[in-house]
Amino acid sequence: MRERWFGATGRKVPEIALEGTLDLGGALVLEDVSDLETIHTAHERGTPVVVRARTPEAVLAALSRGEVACVLVRDEALLALDLAEMTYG
To answer: Pick from 70, 36, 35: which is nearest to 53 by CA?
Structure first.
């Protein structure tokens, strides 16, 4: 399982997690990565950025942003995505 830093909290979290399994206290939780200015500002302040995703493409789009700490999914199948394969073919 790959992990990422959870903002400036000093803790690491899985890059993809099931909704409801992580303590998201203090995090900015978004439905997608369309608001890049908000994402960047939160990251600059050390606020963890978490994005919800429902499709493999949405997971990949969120994780392609270095500012995103974690992607939340409801479908367990999305936990097993081969991101390298999706990225590089």
So the answer is: 70
Domain count, the chain: 1
Dihedral pair phi/psi, residue 2, rounded to 5°: -85, 145
Nearest to 53 by CA among 81, 11, 23, 88: 81
Span 21-44, pLDDT tens digits: 999 999 999 999 999 999 999 999
Domain containing 35 equals: 3-88
Report pTM: 0.92
Burial label, 52 (beta-carbon count in 10 A; 0-12, 13-18, 19+):
middle
Burial of residue 17 (number of CB atoms within 10 Å: 0-12, 13-18, 19+): middle
| DSSP code of residue 74 | S
